[in-house]
Amino acid sequence: MTDDVAAARAAEEESAFSHPPVDPDVTVAYGDDPDQLIDFHVPRGPGGPAPVVVVLHGGAWRAPYDRRHVSPFAAFLAGRGFAVASVEYRRGAGEPGGAPVAGRWPDTFDDVAAAMDALPGLIRERVPGADPRRVVLTGHSAGGQLALWAAARHVLPVGSAWRTDRPAPLRGVVALAPIADFEVADKLDVCGGAVRQLLGGDDWFASRRACADPASLLPTGIATTLVQGRADDVVPQAVAEAYAEAAAKAGEVVGVTLLEDVGHFPLIDPGADACAVVAEEIAQLAW
């Protein structure tokens, strides 16, 4: 990476994290753990019942990165007329004083499944003006993986505790630079070995992939779009392309929107043009 490219990527990250956190209109617990929370942002502006965007934040499934860093993105979507549900979930903390690991097996997946199951009722109870029949699921990076996974629970292996007997009632999924293919992400060492950590380490990588890897859970029958920056060096374009290829082999067409000269973080940066593209992709499925 040249100095100019490195500087551009650093500037993108600085811009994305420069926005102050935005407090939600209401926060609701979907379980007893302190991380089992959903922030709701009500839609801004006039209009009838608003579509709901469910946001799953990224951060390599690691504890230091929580939903607060995507609260400006959630508020941006609310300003576009969506009701927004930003989901928190348990992440990997690691040993005291050590580097955080990625994810907690099975807690991370338990939480996303529980949140998705609770959301229709919570939306009806707590977000007047939202339409729980029009839901789009989005997620960034590791959250993109969780979004794709949550939309594929009906094709999980028989016997999985997370499996559902029918597809989720979604208008679609918009996955932003998702860690969507574990084999390719692992080969590229995405986020410092995060995929292997998420699954519990080397001993579990092969056996748990079938229950967690979006590229192994196809076809879903749910409209899916991936938005990916061509200049992303955190989750490279090759990961999204591998998922799209796996979908095609399974007989499913997945949309891939590639953005020139865009890295990893502008997709969730309200100050970036890429974020407006994301909102439009969501709108195309929601309205």
UniProtKB/TrEMBL annotation:
It comes from the Bacteria. InterPro entries: AB_hydrolase_fold, BD-FAE-like_dom, GDXG_lipolytic_enzyme. It comes from Streptomyces edwardsiae. Pfam families: BD-FAE (PF20434). The keyword NAD does not apply. The keyword Secreted does not apply. This is Alpha/beta hydrolase. Residues 1-24 are annotated as: Disordered. GO terms for molecular function: hydrolase activity. Residues 38-241 form the BD-FAE-like domain. Keywords: Hydrolase.
